[in-house]
Amino acid sequence: MKIRIFTIFFLFTVLAYPVLGLENSMTRAEDARKRAVDFDVPAYFPSEWEAAEALYTAAGILPRTTQNQIQQAIISFNAAADTYDSLFARTVPLYAQAREDEIMFARSELIRTSLTRSYPEALWIADEAALAAYDQFLAGDYYRAKTTAADALGKYEDMLFGTMIYFTREELVRTGLMDLYPEALDGADDMSLAAIDQYLAERYFQARITAAEALNEYDTLLFATDTYFVREEIVDRGFEIYDPLNFMKADIFALAAVDYYEAGNRSSALANAEDARLLYNTVLSNGWAAYAADRGSYAAIERHHALTERVNIASRDHFREAEAAYNEAIDMFVAENYHDAAYLFMNAETHFYIARMETEVKRHNAADALFTASAFTGDSNNANFAESRRLTRLAQETFSLGEYDVSIEFAEEAVRLARLSGAAVDSNAADVRLAFESTGTPVSPGTSSFLPGTTSTSPSGASPSGTLPSGTSPLPSQYTVRSWGTYLDCLWTIAGYPWVYGDPERWGVLYEANRSRMPEPDNPHLIEPGMIIEIPSIRGEFRQGMWDPNRTYTAP
């Protein structure tokens, strides 16, 4: 009987031992694999992880009928477990360093806010958790270290979330609008303070929920204030006239949002505020597009004047600078960057105007030099005087081309040679000089024609005494600006009216006389319908009263 029991026990042991060994090796492989997955081994060593997975999978499908087959399965599972353990050992330092980097980054971001000075105890708690995690990693207690590190990181991130709430509130307060709605801010502040109390009481989950509600409240108020300022920009710039329908709709949504908010319906308030913001942004965008188009028109007019006055020749550098800004503005406009396009058009307009003023100075200087050179009479057989006449003609030719600097050089050399020749100044020079100062156009003494580009030597339009010729109405001394859409009224157009100056290039006279009463004194192109323009006399012509469209005037 004893022999039979011993035999049975022996056979059970021999047969069961391999099975128990297989279970142990399978458990070991499963545990090693889980540990490797928990510490992100696949992310650190992807190719080697695939090899380990292949070993594990192959071991799982091996037959396990005979003892040899079971033994082979045990060997395969142990090999997979060894591979997992090897990868885990290589991964742990990398994993620990990554968690340390995350914690240190979050802590550094938190320190940069400077808000930890107000709540140092919260920072100390997180620091203690971070140091404990470090000690646990060194001691090989990896799972506890992982949990503790996550807890430390969560604490730092909670505090960062709190600073985000704080700065959102600060941004809201800086708008100044909360002075008008203090009760709205008070409600969000109460939530924030409750979240802080919960956090210090280590009720972290509830603190996060309360803090999220506070941030949402601040964000809602900040969104409302941003929407308000978009509307204010529209009104300040006068853009509502470009899209009145959308502006009216936006106001309706905005008022509805306020009503919903005061009634405690936050979701409906936010939805209506978003609709209002969308429409306000549409109005603002359309306004910028229209404004940029207007500025482009002004710049184009100024550019046209500049080309007409040959600014591109007389003041090349300034014209090129203006032209570059103008072309860039056009590119911005085509790209629908209307904000930048508007300011570039304004910049171009200003530079075209500056270049025109510079050209006007050059033109007058050149005309003055040319007048002086033309005032001499002398012996045409004298070589110096003959050369002086030739240079004077060159000065006239370059003047007519807009090359005023070159014209001055020719004229000055002509004067020098005329004086060397002993030539005298023409007796009529003073009268011609008076005509030039009255008309702004140079003329050679003793001739019946102006220099190139002009037609008469007489500053016609008034008798020598400045009295009004009989049978005519006095010229107007004032003019009421009419609409651009119908009459294209601008200083250029007004100066060209025959009963004003009959010359649009005289617009500068009107500008200087009316500059102080213009909407934008530094912008000669902005005049408004109904504005009264003073028309100064420039040739001694008699002017009196407001322009009457029913009267007949004799051109000055």
Describe what this molecule looks like in 3D:
The protein is an all-alpha fold and 556 residues long. Among the domains are: 22-112; 113-223, no CATH class; 471-556, Membrane-bound Lytic Murein Transglycosylase D, Chain A. Helix content is 71%, strand content 2%. The chain contains 19 helices and four strands. It has a two-stranded antiparallel ribbon. The chain has a two-stranded antiparallel ribbon with strand order 3-4. Helix 3 (46-60) runs antiparallel to helix 4 (67-112). The longest helix is centred in the N-terminal third of the chain and has 46 residues, at 67-112. The chain starts with a helix and ends in a 22-residue tail after the last strand. The model is unreliable at 6-17, 434-441 and 443-471 (pLDDT under 50).
Sequence-ordered SSE layout with sheet pairings:
Layout: H1 2-38, H2 41-44, H3 46-60, H4 67-112, H5 120-138, H6 142-174, H7 182-200, H8 204-237, H9 244-262, H10 266-308, H11 311-314, H12 316-334, H13 338-374, E1 376-377, H14 383-400, H15 404-421, E2 424-425, H16 429-439, E3 478-480, H17 484-487, H18 491-496, H19 507-514, E4 532-534
Antiparallel strand pairs: 1-2, 3-4
